[in-house]
Design goal:
CATH topology: Pnp Oxidase, Chain A
Distance between the termini: 19 Å
Number of domains: 1
Order of helices and strands: EEEEHEEHHE
Mean pLDDT: 94
Low-confidence stretches: none
Radius of gyration: 14 Å
Structural class: alpha+beta
CATH architecture: Roll
Strand content: 25-35%
């Protein structure tokens, strides 16, 4: 395992905290959120699509911070439009919270996991 494959936090932790910069206020905004992690990338899924405030915030200022436990990391957030990565993200996040093997053959468990907007945070 290389250093970049070693998570900077426990990826099994149930909740993470995304800090964006408010697009209007310019002030930090914190959002509690489900997440997945692979290969130095945090996966999050927006049930509110592109209209969620936190999505609109990072689309203006892509540099974000993310906290898991007491560990903060920094990175660049982006909406994912690669269908292969999008499918993987859905499986990893849904697998974590709906308890199925993301590498298995099981279908995604519900409409939420099939329709949410995928967002990746590429860690610095």
């Amino acid at each position: 395992m290389t250093t970049t494959d070693t998570p900077p936090f426990d990826p099994g932790t149930q909740l993470g905290y995304l800090e964006t910069i408010g697009r209007v206020s310019g002030q930090p905004r914190l959002t509690e959120i489900w997440f997945g992690y692979e290969h130095n990338v945090i996966y999050i899924l927006s049930g509110g699509g592109l209209g969620k405030d936190w999505v609109r915030n990072f689309r203006k200022t892509p540099q974000v911070r993310f906290r898991v436990g007491e560990t903060w990391v920094t990175g660049t957030a982006r909406v994912v439009d690669d269908p292969v990565l999008e499918a993987r993200m859905r499986r990893v996040v849904a697998g974590k919270y709906y308890h199925f093997d993301p590498d298995g053959e099981s279908p995604l468990p519900n409409s939420w996991s099939k329709t949410v907007t995928p967002v990746a945070i590429d860690l610095d």
